[in-house]
Amino acid sequence: MIEHRENQFYIKEGQLIVARLDYEVKSHVMYLHSVFVDPSLRGQGIARKLVEESIKFAQQMNYKIVPICPYTVAYFNEHKEFETLLKKD
Q1: Measured between alpha carbons, how far is 39 from 19 in angstroms, rounded to an integer?
Q2: Is 47 exposed, middle or buried (0-12, 13-18, 19+ CB in 10 A)?
Q3: Which residues touch 4 (CB under 8 Å, ≥6 apart)?
Q4: What does the mean pLDDT of the chain come to?
Q5: pLDDT one-digit tens code per residue, 18-43
Q6: Considering Cα of 5, then 46, then 19, then 73, what sign does the dihedral take?
Q7: Beta bridge partners of 11
Q8: I want to staple 10 with a disulfide (CB 3.0 to 4.6 A). Which of 20, 52, 66, 69 is the partner?
């Protein structure tokens, strides 16, 4: 189950965070800084689920998104249906 706290979406096993997406919001823009998934959990679509959760949150809050880390950049390049959420310079 994905949990959320300020500036982070995460998944815990016990008390340990095993996957997370770190972000920052400035002036209604959500900057997706980094995604981490524990090596033992990679290849299960967990990073994708974290990004999709951040997209839902951005939509609810009416934020634009700036992907920064390579994973989030690749995600948005592959999912053009979310192009309208991206902040244009």
Answers
A1: 10
A2: buried
A3: 10, 53, 57
A4: 97
A5: 999 999 999 999 999 999 999 999 99
A6: negative
A7: 19
A8: 20
CA distance 51 to 45: 10
Encoded amino acid at 14, one letter: G
- Single-letter code of the amino acid located at 16: L
Q: What distance in Å separates the CA atoms of residue 36 and residue 56, rounded to the nearest whole number?
A: 19
- Residue 13 to residue 19: CA distance in whole angstroms: 9
Domain range list for the chain: 3-85
pLDDT band at 1 (very low <50, low <70, confident <90, very high): very high
Please list the residues that pair with 32 across neighbouring strands.
Answer: 23, 67
pLDDT over threshold 80, residue 89? no
Residue type, 80: K
Give residue 59's pLDDT: 98
